[in-house]
Fold these 3 entries.
Entry 1:
Amino acid sequence: MTATEPESEPTTEPERVRLDELDGAPHAVVFEHDAPRTIRLTLDADQQLPAHRHPDTDIVCHLVEGVLDLALDDESHRLAAGDLLRFSGDREIAPTAIEDSVAVLVFAPQETD
């Protein structure tokens, strides 16, 4: 019987990104790997995205700049710079920028029982 060295766990280097250097509008991919999916959302004042869903995900929205009305089904949530909101992507989502706005959205798979 020979001694074996323990398997080393893969190491990943930290990734650093500047939001203002990302390409793409209104959506820009922040990190290239799949999970959790992270995007930068940039909307001009009065710009609105059509209502949509992200089934089977939990979403965290961090508003970095501006003011944003985020419709979730029949509810409206006004976010100001610095606010974070967590919600289910199963809900119908429709963001509207009140002023020029930048948000970071993180999409994580919902845990199943």
Entry 2:
Amino acid sequence: MTRSRSRRANEAWESLLTAHASLMKRFNAEPIWGEVSMREYDVLYTLSKHDGPMRLYELGRGVLLSQPALSRLVERLADRGLVERAADPADGRGVRLALTAAGREQQRRVGGRHAVDVARAVTAALTDEEMRQLEAIGRKLAAQGEPFPPAQPHPNRQEATL
């Protein structure tokens, strides 16, 4: 990768992170988070996107929390009756997580208001074509998954051998 391409990649990444931080601050300031925090909503939303129960590590792939922090947050949501835990039939030591009826209702109530805020912010800044491009770019980046592919040697540089 050439230096200018590397620089462009880093500038694009910084722009994406800055946009994310700015929008998240804006969304967090909205008066819809009284019953659940944004992080709690993130867990409820991620669970709502799945047809059935999911393991904690699966849930962790969709949220920006460490495993210990996610475990504590799920515990609090379960104590409030928003998430239920059940033994995993495939693995007696494992636990599967799902929304309760109250959790699903809470997610829908907050999610509907949040969707309005997101639509207002995004449509105010982007054209329909830009929104399509942003969605395609986001999906493409998300599809990379982990781990990163190994770095490719620069074609004009000899790599040192041990």
Entry 3:
Amino acid sequence: MKYQFESTKDLLKFLNENLLSTVEAAELLGISKSRIGHMVRDGKLTPAKDQPKVFLKESVLERKAEQEELRKKYRPYDELE
């Protein structure tokens, strides 16, 4: 995906709305910060910046959808609650 911005203000607004810290990504995915580290190491989630780790919200939301499908497949008993 290619992004273009009319001004620095537009770029900063986009970054503020679309970048997540490790803590924010972990909260959105419902997992621990250390699990985020494992996912990065295993190539399941790619940070937009390594130090400090920052993630594009779109990537985290894609991973969340994948996780939900995997949970349905491998933990069907969770849906009974």
